[in-house]
Structures are given as structure tokens and as C-alpha cells.
């Protein structure tokens, strides 16, 4: 992922109001993030419980969304829809977000299960277990990285383009 500035981050949010863009808290370590190992930028707002942000590179540039964590409890341990890690070292929560544009203003939303603190990029970079003799773990890891990028991009596109 290409490094982002504060201006890029605030301008990229496609489903946030002007006041939401102004009040968002930037990631605390933005200047030291490992941009080469991030498939998307995701963080929780420490000042507003239950709010998260995700920014991904699309063909037309960075596109970001504001997410809200569901208050309900999940009864079983879910799998993240983005990294699809079956040996998650972290919690997965249900996030919803309003769609961009008029659809969002009309109350249209979309939701997903995602790692609570957006650890997906780290999860997919771990070498998977050897599934069978001759299993190419590096190829599997690279496939998981590509799949994560596709899942997050497609979710953001659904937020942007959905009706």
C-alpha cells in the first residue's frame, strides 16, 4: 500500500460526513507504519468506541470507509470475511457501514465480519501449516495476501457502488 497523509486519509472517506472526517483520530503510529506489508490501512478510533476506519487502494486512488461495530454479542467464534484466518490470534467482530452517497443517506447499510483491530495483513503473512506432502506454503501465503486485497477492495466497492 502507498503511504497516506492526513489529508489523503480524510479526503478518502467515501461514506463519512464532513464532520466525521474532521473529528476522526488518525492512527497513532502513521509515520512508522510498515506500508509495504499493509494490504489496507485499518484502525479503531480511540476516542469514539465502536468506530473503525478502513482505507484501500483502488484504481482511482485511496478509498476509505467508516465502520461501526455491532453492540450485539456473537455466540460462536466467527471467521474474518477478509483474511479468512482459521487460526485467528484475535477477535472477530461484526461491523456495519452505511453506503456512500444517496443510498447511505437513505439508511442503506452493508456489513461484514472482520478482525476487531484490522490485523488481517499480519494474519495472511504468516506461513500456513503444511497441508500435505509437497504443499507450497509460500504460494499459499501469497494467495492469501491476494485474496485479502480482493476481499477488502470488493467490500469498499460495494459500499461505494451499492444501491
Counted up, domains total 1
How many beta-strand elements? 5
- Low-pLDDT residue spans: none
Determine the strand fraction and express it as a percent band.
15-25%
Q: Numbering strands along the chain, what is their spatial order in the largest sheet?
A: 1-2-3-4-5
CA gyration radius, whole angstroms: 16 Å
Largest sheet: 5 strands, antiparallel
Give the SSE order as H and E letters: HHEEEEHEHH
How many helices? The count is: 5
Mean pLDDT: 91
Question: How far is the N terminus from the C terminus?
Answer: 28 Å
- Secondary-structure class: alpha+beta
Q: Helix proportion of residues, in percent?
A: 25-40%
The best one-word shape is globular
Set down the secondary structure blueprint.
Elements: H1 6-12, H2 18-23, E1 41-44, E2 51-58, E3 61-69, E4 92-98, H3 101-105, E5 109-115, H4 120-125, H5 137-161
Antiparallel strand pairs: 1-2, 2-3, 3-4, 4-5
What does the model show?
By secondary structure, the protein is α+β, with helices and mostly antiparallel strands. It has one domain. Helices cover 30% and strands 21% of the residues. It contains five helices and five strands; from the N terminus they run ααββββαβαα. The chain has helices at residues 6-12, 18-23, 101-105, 120-125, 137-161; strands at 41-44, 51-58, 61-69, 92-98, 109-115. A five-stranded antiparallel β-sheet has the order 1-2-3-4-5. β1 (41-44) and β2 form a beta hairpin.
